[in-house]
Amino acid sequence: NLFQTPMSMSQRVDSRTRDLVDKSTRQILKASISPQDDIIAERSRATFDALQMCYALNGGKDKIQRRAQLVEALKRTSWGNKERRHFMTREEEYVEALRASFGIWEKMKQEKMSLEDGVTMRSLVDFPGGLELHIGMFIPSILSQGTPEQQQHWLPLCYDLSIIGTYAQTELGHGTFVRGLETTATYDKTTQEFVLHSPTLTSTKWWPGGLGKTATHAVVMARLFIDGKDYGPHAFVVQVRSLQDHLPLPGICVGDIGPKFGYGGVDNGYLAMDHLRISRESMLMRYSKVLPDGTYVPPPPSNAKASYATMVYVRADIVKNAGSVLAKAVTIATRYAAVRRQTAPSPGQPETQVLDYQNTSHTLLPLVAAAYAVHFMGETIMGMYKRFDKDRERGEFSSLPELHALSSGCKALCTWITADGIESCRRTCGGHGYSKLSGLPTLFQNYVQNVTWEGDNNVLCLQTARYLLKALVGVQRGQQATGSASYLNHAAAELHAKSAVQGASGWNAHALQSAMRHCATRLAASATAMLQSASRSAAGASSRAAGGLVFEGPAWNNSTVAMIKLTRAHCMAELHSNMLSSITALHSSGKVGGRELAVLQQLASLFALTHIEAHMGDYLEDGYFTGAQAASIRQRQNALLLELRPNAVALVDAFGIEDYVLNSALGRQDGDVYTALLDMAQGSPLNSSQEGPAWHTVLKPVMVKHSKM
To answer: Nearest CA to 522 among 480, 560, 565?
Structure first.
């Protein structure tokens, strides 16, 4: 047979029939090219060493080899097997995700594996479950906000899974506006306890991962009240379930919030408390404290925002994760587009590879560039956080405003790029992209919540914009802007600048970065002027304004579109600038050679050109570009698509993402996509019988009306 399939279709074929059909078959085979041959040919066209690039992007050869070892080990476990992953019910997802999490935990203990191995295994298994916030928020909250005594008490219980925690901040009626939380923690001086209470329906905690059916404890954010005075949100460790029978404790109403768009393995939950008493020591008191007599000890002035540290860490981690998720999507779509053929130029000739159509490369290659840009930004922001964490140990918090502003804006931009990018990748895969077996629908479903959780993206953009406007006003008053806002020091001159580029070849890295900085500067100046004008008429502006700016009320609320646009432009320029510096650092350190440097520089240019082309109106509006320069941007972009086309598959290979991780029929490294689709389809529960589950109960009674059977 020309193809082998496990489906029940074999039969004895007589020689005459076989000879008759063979003539037709030969006609088909003349123009047929195996997808495996296509993928081999693609890799042979690369102008750089994909393996060297892979080592550079992933921390070296040793880490790649260790990942391969862990993949083989995980395949041999029952909880690491992914064959049924696409066919699970919600309940199965929840149970199996927990089983995988516990399996990793136990494997680490038994084999005395490193924390790095554990983190790697979690990313390889890629099965979010009820332990996500135990690892990602509960433990970090205790580490960052707990006293040494509290850490000594809670952390051993966390590490051996005697307790499982989550982080409960978001409420049914409140999300990003933390100061508006309605859950209360009232201090009782007589008993030296806090009374936690959910006074309204909207104060019900809603969305915390793992809270539904897994967690026994939660770090609960509640408004602290002492003698009727509101001291704002503080963190409390609260036990919600019995450690003996896992039932909710008295005064606790807790459960699962129901089905979601994706992320089915995670039991996002709700929590309401009815006059629940907890000990004074349950408040995390590394910085803020409540003494036994009810005296409130605030954090040091320089440390007033220490409670934001955990949130900043999570946002930095989200940025880092965005690059790896987008890399998965572009790996699947690019490999598939390289082996999928559609429409022959003339009868009898092979059909054209989908990736050779300009519209496909115009979609995918900029997304490959974006995956690299987001990857580099994730590395940079996590590095910034680690430096801040060391500074914090010394009581130094001066870097927090910059880190908060950049991590907020980049969390928004990078998750938008990734979420939209996954869907664009799915669409380029045509009909097969709609199949869960492609891996793309599940990737999108599980990822898209990142644009909302840990800070709605639009609200985070407003926080970054506030930082930029204050920086610009400072510059106007003779102060120096620093960090990512330092380009605003040249705002006065920049606002009158015009691009001097002539011809498509003039769009080098410097010209592109200059254009993006100009756009961000102009948008910052425009947004500042807009808000200053609106603020002048705001009641009481003089008492609340910073440099004539009011960051609340109608003046602010009616300026948010401009603020979000500013943050997007600022962070996009930062992504490009950071990509250029990261590329230079890789080359200077010897991690990549000249050929790799050249293709990375092409990617950086394509990333910038694609953004500028998509927002051309912003560059034409003030005359920074002429019409001819706008046209030359598109010319250079199209030229780069052709220059990068031979490297498309090698560029996604360089991400080093194993087939085990992708779990995709379309993204296979060997290109054998059609065999994979047929093989994976056999795992569908509907294929467990030939007649199907509806035959006896629904179809047969109607269709076989006169049968005696």
So the answer is: 565
Q: Comparing C-alpha atoms, which of 93, 99, 169 is closest to residue 133? A: 169
**What pLDDT sits at residue 4?**
47
- State the virtual CA torsion across 611, 613, 617, 620 in degrees, nearest 10: 110
Q: How far apart are CA 515 and CA 523, in angstroms?
A: 12
pLDDT band at 211; cut points 50, 70, 90: very high
List, for residues 467-511, the tens digit of each pLDDT value. Answer: 999 999 999 999 999 999 999 999 999 999 999 999 999 999 999
Answer yes or no: are the C-beta atoms of 535 and 550 closer than 8 Å: yes
What residue type is assigned to position 529 of the chain?
Answer: A
- Read out DSSP for 470-497? HHHHHHHTTPPP-GGGGGGGGHHHHTT-
| pLDDT for position 139 | 94
Compute the residue count for the chain. Answer: 709
- Residue the block writes with tokens 């925690």: 165
- Kindly list the distances between the CA atom of residue 353 and the CA atoms of 95, 152, 645, in Å, as whole numbers in the listed order: 42, 60, 12
Residues designated catalytic: 454
Which one-letter DSSP state was computed for residue 646?
G
CA distances, 472 to each of 157, 413, 460, 568 (Å): 48, 21, 19, 17
Residues 6+ apart with CB under 8 A from 490: 521
Tokens of 314: 């999570």
Spatial distance between the Cα atoms of 583 and 601, rounded to a whole number of angstroms: 7
- Do residues 134 and 166 touch, judged by C-beta distance below 8 A? yes
pLDDT in tens, 382-395: 999 999 988 877 87
Q: Is the pLDDT of residue 285 over 90?
A: yes
Range from 10-19, 166-175, 189-198, 523-532 carrying the lowest mean pLDDT: 10-19
Of the candidates 648, 455, 642, which has an alpha carbon nearest to the alpha carbon of residue 567? 455
Q: Taking the model in full, what pTM does it have? A: 0.93
And the tokens for 362? 């115009």
Taking only Cα atoms into account, the Rg of the chain, rounded to an integer number of angstroms, comes to 29
Q: Which residues of 388-425 are buried (b: 16+ CB within 10 A; e: fewer)?
A: beeebeeeebebbbbbbbbbbbbbbbbbbbbbbbbbbb
